[in-house]
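This entry is listed below:
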Amino acid sequence: MTMRNSTVRAVNRLTGRWAEAAVAPGGRTGTVLTAAGLWPLLALLADGAAGPARTELSAALGIPADRASAASRELLTALGRVPGLQAAVGLWSDGGLPLDPGWSARLPEGARGTLTGDPAVDGRALDRWASERTGGLIERMPVQLTEDTRLVLASALAMRVRWLRPFRDWPSVIDDGPWSCTSVVRLLRSTSLLHRVRVAETPAGPVTVLEVVGGGGVDVHLVLGEPEAVAGRVLAGGIAAVTRSVPSTDGFSLPWGTAGPGLDVRREAAYRPEPRLHIDTVAFSVEAEHDLMDHAGLFGLETAASRVPSGHFPGISGDPLLIGSGSQAAMARFHARGFEAAAVTAFGLAGAGIAPRPRYRIRAVDLRFDRPFGFLAVQRSSRLVLAAGWVGEPLPATPEREKSQEEKEAEEAAAWAEEDRDDTTLRGVFRVGPGSRRPGRGPRSGER
């Protein structure tokens, strides 16, 4: 995916500011958001705005308004080329609204439609578009239609990621902490690739970040802070870490003992010389709808929503226009085999038997996500954050037959055999170990 670094940085900055403002301080309420779906719409609005509204939108975007339309098209085109990711823009206007030809010509390719003026009829058409563009992940267009609505500008973003190596999953009960006595779907995995986990020092304190590698160039990063840290600041700190705005230390170089939130580094007896990272997390599903006008200042929309005779968007239409509403509906699911996320944004406007004694003493890293944590979906090469969210509650386990100890041990032995094969393959590709670097991933902490 090719796009300007300035555009990636601008979108990621908006993601960080929005995440810090949108996540509840206590972290017990889940949410999900995507500035990558909102930013292109703000850019198109900035391109057609004038006066203070244009200035505010440009400041929120982080780039000059006269570059906004081109950057929006570039971003959406690049997103559309990512395997497993769909991106689209739609515009609907009433038949009597004259659109500026120059502004219309600069719009990204996408749906063009006409509003009938009947909110019920128009609502059904917009809902169909939202569902089709997200593969059914979002079924409703989050826009407030009234008889006064003259234009709807919307974007849809949907991704489906499959892990290169699935987790093992089974029902379990968490013993302590804020999720104590909660029945959950535990996701477990072990690997020798210790660079998958990192600890960064952020304004929110130490933050642990786990990278879960997906196919198609999109990875998901799980973010855990200290129990008392403010959730939104933890998520913003995670964004800074995965976009390399702050330095971090990987699992090969972390000190012994408690090395970060949820993270312990210890010595472990083993039959093979490779180190191990043991991952213990939970499946989750979150949904959220954001009224963008609740944070109008953050998005540069305060002036654009005020009523003045001349309107704020002469570059869109000769008729006066203002922002009547703005919302985003978003969802995310994390499970044993992959991750799905979507957003629609709219403006109106082990073995058995006797084993030999272990020969090695290895470095073992234990990582548990057993309390509220954040997550980020990141395009690997550009470091663009596609979605960000917070898990307030894990996905509850569905009642099913409890597996016997023999079945669990058989599954564990099979999984270890598979992971050993996968680790061998990945080491041949990535050269892992102290001081190693993965191709195309930039400098490790301390090499900058």
Remarks:
- Residues 424-448 have pLDDT under 50 and may be disordered.
- The first helix runs from residue 5 to 22.
- The domain at 5-160+288-348 is CATH 3.30.497.10 (Antithrombin; Chain I, domain 2).
- The longest strand covers residues 151-162.
